[in-house]
Automatic annotation (TrEMBL):
Substrate binds at R82, R88, N120, R151. SUPFAM superfamilies: LDH C-terminal domain-like, NAD(P)-binding Rossmann-fold domains. The lineage of its organism: Bacteria, Pseudomonadati, Bacteroidota, Flavobacteriia, Flavobacteriales. It catalyses: (S)-malate + NAD(+) = oxaloacetate + NADH + H(+). This is Malate dehydrogenase. It comes from Flavobacterium bernardetii. NAD(+) binds at G7, A8, G9, N10, V11, G12, D32, N95, V118, S119, N120. Belongs to the LDH/MDH superfamily. MDH type 3 family. Its EC number is 1.1.1.37. Keywords: NAD, Oxidoreductase, Tricarboxylic acid cycle. The keyword Cell inner membrane does not apply. The gene is mdh. It is an enzyme of class 1 (oxidoreductase). It comes from the Bacteria. InterPro entries: L-lactate/malate_DH (IPR001557), Lactate/malate_DH_C (IPR022383), Lactate/malate_DH_N (IPR001236), Lactate_DH/Glyco_Ohase_4_C (IPR015955), Malate_DH_type3 (IPR011275), NAD(P)-bd_dom_sf (IPR036291). PROSITE patterns: PROKAR_LIPOPROTEIN (PS51257).
């Protein structure tokens, strides 16, 4: 199976590293516009093969889309990341043009591919990719919820003082500092509601920390995070290529589900060989439904800024 990653920067290269290390695909192509950069990243990753023991073939190219031909999955991580103090939404001006042209180039060589959109503002970039390519909705998947959910479980595990892998939880809604919805009511510690162990105040703090999880790391690192984002993309790609049918919160086109239409927003999806196999209704309560509607309003307003790019 072949995966192309467009944008060999922090997130793209980290994703290629996890995909090869875990043997998720047999071939990974990294593509970047910076001369020699993707080639260098690919060579560096390939020089791990004998020490970490993988057989994936990783190669790098400078803007040569012919090398991406017949990719099963293409990941878009090209574009600029935010700096401390910025929101993801502020990246739209530069990233919209990049994402649109990348998506169009990809399709020339891989008309049957599934596209995973990572560049921010991710929900709006996913919607843009869908509109610009006209691909069926099951083949355009925005990655944000997998990462946000892993951060949610990290903060829950810290509050519970228990291992993160014993914690279940999901974040839906927009992939933004104010639009994310950590579902604290449904989170559990090995099946028991986390509310059995944490006060409302503690749960509120976990939710608040999760929502600004990306901003916190951006403040610490000077640019946005990459290890967990790269690993989250690899997790999603694994579920597609190996038809795992995992339930993962992803940004996908809604056509009435969760009361929304004509918008890409994070909802629980079954992810398998066709991309989005199913959108799962996890039965939100009235308060959660209202928060979801507010999140959708904010993302829809952002999508309005795409008019010029889509014209
Ligand atoms: N959805 C999510 O959960 C996450 C999204 N992101 C987003 O992912 C994007 C990438 O972040 P980083 O890897 O940290 O940035 P980075 O700056 O390290 O890498 C971006 C790469 O894209 C390349 N690039 C720019 N224009 C291109 C084009 N037209 N064609 C091919 N390559 C091009 C650049 O040369 C650079 O190497 C950002 O927009 C960031 O906000 C980052 C983390 C998580
Ligand atoms: O915070 C950012 O800008 C990058 C991102 O989406 C994340 O790490 O969640």
């Amino acid at each position: 199976m072949k995966v192309t990653i467009v944008g060999a920067g922090n997130v793209g290269a980290s994703c290629a590293d996890v995909i090869s290390y875990r043997g998720i695909a047999s071939e990974v192509v990294l593509l970047d516009i910076k001369e020699g950069f993707a080639e260098g990243k690919a060579m560096d990753i390939m020089q791990c093969a004998t020490t970490t023991g993988f057989n994936t073939q990783v190669s790098g190219v400078t803007n040569d889309y012919s090398k991406t031909v017949n990719s099963d999955v293409v990941v878009i991580t090209s574009g600029i990341p935010r700096k401390p103090g910025m929101t993801r939404e502020e990246l739209i001006g530069i990233n919209a043009g990049i994402v649109k042209s990348v998506a169009e180039n990809i399709l020339k060589f891989s008309p049957n591919t599934i596209i995973v959109v990572v560049s921010n503002p991710m929900d709006t970039m996913t919607y843009l990719t869908l509109k610009a390519t006209g691909l069926p909705k099951n083949r355009i998947i925005g990655m944000g919820g997998a990462l946000d959910s892993s951060r949610f479980k990290y903060y829950l595990s810290k509050a519970l003082n228990k291992p993160a892998n014993d914690v279940q939880g999901m974040v839906i809604g927009g992939h933004g500092d104010t639009t994310m919805i950590p579902l604290t009511r449904l989170a559990s510690y090995n099946g028991a509601p986390v509310a059995n162990y944490l006060s409302q105040e503690e749960l509120d703090k976990v939710a608040a920390d999760t929502m600004v999880g990306g901003a916190t790391l951006t403040g610490l690192l000077g640019t946005s995070a990459w290890y967990a984002p790269g690993a989250s993309v690899a997790y999603l790609v694994d579920s597609i290529l190996n038809n795992q049918n995992k339930m993962i919160a992803c940004s996908v086109l809604l056509e009435g589900e969760y009361g929304q239409s004509d918008i890409c927003l994070g909802v629980p999806c079954i992810i398998g060989k066709n991309g989005v196999e199913e959108i799962v209704d996890i039965k939100l309560n009235d308060a959660e439904k209202a928060t979801f509607a507010k999140s959708a309003d904010a993302v829809r307003a952002m999508n309005g800024d795409l008019k010029a790019v889509l014209a």
